[in-house]
Every structure is written in C-alpha cells, then in structure tokens.
Amino acid sequence: MSTKFDSYHKRRLQSSYISVVISIALVLFMVGVLGLILLKSTKVANHIKEKVAITLFVKDQVSQNQIETFLASLKEEEFTREAIYTSKDDAAKKYSEEIGEDFLAFLGENPLKNGIDIFLKADFVTPEKMQELETRFLENAFVADVSYDKPLINLLTKNIQRISFWLLVVSGFFALVSMILINSSIRLSIYSKRFNIKTMQMVGATKSFIRRPFIIRSIKLGFFGAFLALIGLAFVIYYVDQYIPSLELLKDYGTLLYLVVGVFLTAFIITWISTFFATQRFLNLQTDELHF
Fold this sequence. Notes:
Elements: H1 2-49, E1 53-58, H2 64-75, E2 80-86, H3 88-99, H4 103-107, E3 115-120, H5 127-138, E4 143-147, H6 150-191, H7 194-202, H8 207-243, H9 253-283
Antiparallel strand pairs: 1-3, 1-4, 2-3
Helix pairs in contact: 1-6, 1-8, 1-9, 6-9, 8-9
C-alpha cells in the first residue's frame, strides 16, 4: 500500500513540476514576444526618423570651395547621420524628369539653388531640436533658406510617443499577469510539500535552510521553462525574418542577446520571488492550519 501511495505521490509531484514548467514557458514566451516587439519598435522608429531630411538652400554667391568646406563641417556635426550636396543643375535635371518636360527651356534660366540634404540622427528628429537647427542654419552666412516637413515631424513624434506609451502599458500588464500565473503554479507545487516543510521546521531547521532547496528547484524549473520559451521564440523570429526581411531579426545580434538575457533573468527573478513568498506562507502557518 505504501509503495502505491509513494508511486502516486511521485507521479503527482512530477505532474506538478511539468505544469510549472509549461506555465513558465508559455508566460515567458508571451513576455519574449512582447519584449521583441518593444525592442524592434524602437529600432523601427529610429529607422523612420533617420529618413527625415532637413534641406539647406545655399546662396548663389557662395563659391564651390566654400560649399565643399561647409559640407565637410556639417558632416562632422553630432546631429548629422549623412549630408548630401545637390547642385542646382542636378536638381533641375531631376525636376525635369519628374514633371516630364524641360522647364528650363520655358523659363530661360535655372531658378533653383544649390542644396544640402542633412539626414539627422534619430535623437535629433523632434520638433524642438529641428526648430533649433533651423534657427541656427538661418543665421549662417552661406544659407539662403531652410526647409523640412514640420507637420510630418510633429505627427511622427506624437505617433511614436503614443505607440511607445501603449507598448509600455501592455508590457507592464503582461509582466503582472506573468508574475501572478507563475506564482500560482509554484505555490501549488509547494502546497503538496507543506507537511514536509512543517516537519522540518518542528525538528529545528531554520527558515532559510528549508527555503533553499525549494528556491533552487524552482529556479531550475524556471530556466528549463525559459529554454522552451526561447525555442518557441526562435521559430517565431525565423518565420518573421522570412516574411519581413527588412527587420533583419536574425542579423540583429544585440536585440537577440537582450532577448535571451531578458527571458532568463525574468525566469530567475520571478521564480525566486514566488518561491520565497510561497514557502514563507507555509512556514508561518500553524500545524492545524495546514489542512485548509
């Protein structure tokens, strides 16, 4: 009879461990997907911002040597990602190709100006900083005018801030749900050991001594669940990279490293905290309260 009971108890314990691992894996998989979206959304937003250009129109009396010197100085600025010079002749040729006729033949002269397109680093693509740059460039003796799409910058900044806010809210919500789910699974697995915990406590074992094996086991289960979650994330990343290669998920080693470290770190923190408080609860119970 004792053998059957031990066998039943062992199977029940194994089933409890499996449910804990599956719960942890599923929760960390969701957290990992959300973390991936959060990390890539920042890179995508920066990629879009760096496509924005501010154009400087150079005065006609500025010589070619002065333009080249000015262009070189712009490339050294901290806000510059790339600076491209376009002569007014090249601009006229491009414009003629776009409208499908030679407007110079009609006007008799080229009304366009030499221009420099400055593609800014993502941190400088905000309405305030671009306004500061516009004011600064207008004070330059070489610059006749400054042009950029102000409504686009305002709309882009607002939308990115709005999306980032809601992503953080959703991330916080899922993090809370994950902690609750994992905590519940671990507490159920420890519940079956509550009599062992109280017995050890009655023979003089300290709370830290009793907690240690539970915490170590939970962390191991957490790491195993994290490993399973990462396998699932690997499949997701592979298929997303096949369908949306522009995201370059498989080549973004920095994001992948953050994702792996984040998943394992989340597994460690949540399992440690959950196990600590779950065992603490049973350690503080009276003997007659263990049956409830």
